[in-house]
Amino acid sequence: MTLASIPNPNVQNTVTPLAGPSVEAMFGVIMEAVRESHHDINELRKECHELRLANASLERQVRDGLQWNFHTSRNGTPGFMTPIPSSPKLHPKLSPFLSHAIPSITTTGPDASYFKPSPLGDNALTAFPYGTRDIPGFYVVIPAGGAGTRLWPLSREGHPKFLLDLTLKGRSLIQATWDRLLPLSSAQRTTVVAGPGHVKSIMEQLPDLLPGNIFTEPGPKDSMAAIGLAAAILAQRDPNAIIGSFAADHMISGDDAFLSAVAEAVEVAKQDYLVTIGIAPSHPSTGFGYVRLGEKLALKDAPNARLVSSFKEKPDARTAASYIATGNYRWNAGMFVTKATFLLDLLREYQPQLHDGLIQVAQVWDDETKRQAVLSEVWPGLEKIPIDNAVAEPAAAEGRVAVVPATFGWDDVGDFSSLADLLPAEANQPRVLGDNNLVITEQVAGGIVVPGSGRLIAALGVDDLVIVDMPDTLLVTTRARSQEVKRLVKKCRDAGHKNLL
């Protein structure tokens, strides 16, 4: 034994405890977190792959539906794919701007009978509940608003996207909306809510719209004031009116499924519900709100209808993927069907000041002199709020909102990226909204080009670009950033370029 190994009784052995876990333990925790992260990423990749497959399947179904409708529907084509007018003067060149007069395409009457398969919810077949397409007592409301910021510079404040022919089929979005809804209500029961700057263009594009059926709001107050104004006026004209609100700037494919879903929503609305139409999501979109499906209502004439469990705001990509994985969520397309009086009752309960102001306006609406005076006094003070926040969300919490799940094709054309998806293109080529002869590309894939100025656009070796060339403005961005175009609009306004907006 060495001296060094002999313990010294005078020296006290102490061990200093560590302040925290050992390095090895911390490393183990980190590695476990990394493994969990890799697992989550793999699961998300798997979900995205499955969603892509489902999306491809849905696209095939939509294409098949388009072909089926082409041979069977009354108008020859469904939804926004309305026929190109026969006169060459109506479409002199490929341009999304319709500056010419559009003839009436109103038919003399609805079909004598109607029974078509509709892939709604869990029911493969849904019969239209009437002998004709017309639904007695049903009034269509088309809110036509928007500042045109997300498709700028193609759309402008004075010429927003609902006035544009974004599919180059010869009809603008609002004309396609009119075509689609006319069989349900007739021109006498189809109304439009719009700002004063758009009334003239709307009347030119919709020559069958009755002058008394366009409700002009002095300034934008969001969807609740617009729809509430129409409800208040129509309730004065017909206390039993059931109204359906459908935006002027959405694209829909599959007329039969759409009409059947609306007819089913009307049946639910008769039972004192605020009814929305939920769109089957084709991908985990972060640009749309979602509706969570609740219990079935078990209504004989509305077999697919359910309560709305809740409304969800626009989610992030991961949350959207988790929504779709459950199968219990639908896109919130902003379509609402309800009794006009019931909507006003909800408004009185949840937004009493807004309700009182709209009633005050509606009571004098048919007297133009009094109308202008009351509008000048009341309208500026009305709250600017969407219908979802104003009445739909609080009413859903009390079980007074229903949803009809539907599977027709739908898009709100919210930016240039979504617009690109709606346009045809050759493989690995950009979409062109306009004259293809004005676009020359080499090694360019994806993206969208709008040759609106009439000059040649040449692109080399750039993918997924958005190029919008107008006579007074040129926009260049990427599809991934196209949702942010409205930020540029704000900067242009701040820089004094209001004449370009």
UniProtKB/TrEMBL annotation:
The keyword Transferase applies. Residues 141-424 form the Nucleotidyl transferase domain. Keywords: Nucleotidyltransferase, Transferase. One of its GO terms (molecular function) is mannose-1-phosphate guanylyltransferase (GTP) activity. Residues 447-491 form the MannoseP isomerase/GMP-like beta-helix domain. It holds the Pfam family ManC_GMP_beta-helix. InterPro entries: GMPP_N, ManC/GMP-like_b-helix, Mannose-6P_isomerase_type2, NTP_transferase_dom, Nucleotide-diphossugar_trans. The keyword Cytoplasm does not apply. GO terms for biological process: GDP-mannose biosynthetic process. It comes from the Eukaryota. This is Mannose-1-phosphate guanylyltransferase.
